[in-house]
Amino acid sequence: MQTLFEFTLPHGYLDEQGHLHRRGVMRRATALDEVEPLADPRVRANEAYLGIALLSRVLLSLGNIRPVPESVVERLFATDYMFLQEFYLQVNGSGPRPMFPERLSLVETECPACRARFTLDLGQLEDAPPEGR
Fold it and tell me: Above 80 in pLDDT, residue 119?
């Protein structure tokens, strides 16, 4: 069973020295990962902080940052934070019958011409008419 998952952030984390960190590794969450942050005073004061606390527990690396502290997750661009939340749901889905099937359509790909990497939402392609019609 796979427990470690590589990812590339859409924009990346820019640290205080000006280094951009885009590639990272997330591990599959445990029950304790989901339960323990609920006792954190920051989560009790603001439920929205749960995502930050949870992601910092399962992110093993982001560029050369190991481990990834909450302070780094707090300073991610909103797009990257949303990407990691979606990725977390993909990584921790429940196999053939995922709990959030609408969120499992993101794939990371690369343009064959220019080699630029980007995330594609395959869910948007479901309603597209077949080519030639």
Answer: no
